[in-house]
Design goal:
The protein is mainly α. Helix content is 88%, strand content 0%. InterPro entries: DUF6809.
């Protein structure tokens, strides 16, 4: 999935450029350590995004159920009122 935010591609290029600068500054072993650190950070962010999506999805589902239950209760109450009044 790719963000539609207009800054997304710009920030991606900026990150790539900065990584290249660090690649030139560091030894190959040091840069490998930096890459491992960046990979770890990305894994953590991925877990956070997954958890946020799951939470939002569940919250949305609960809201839909709540709306339908409230609507259902109102509908039943209206039918009962109609039956007893007429």
């Amino acid at each position: 999935m790719v963000s539609k935010d207009p800054l997304y591609r710009k920030k991606g290029r900026e990150l790539s450029e900065k990584i290249e600068v660090w690649k030139k500054k560091l030894s190959s072993d040091e840069f490998a350590e930096l890459e491992a650190l960046l990979d770890l950070e990305q894994q953590i962010q991925s877990m956070e995004v997954t958890a946020a999506f799951a939470y939002g999805f569940k919250l949305g589902a609960v809201m839909i159920i709540e709306i339908h239950l409230d609507h259902g209760v109102e509908l039943i109450a209206n039918r009962i009122t109609t039956i007893f009044i007429t």
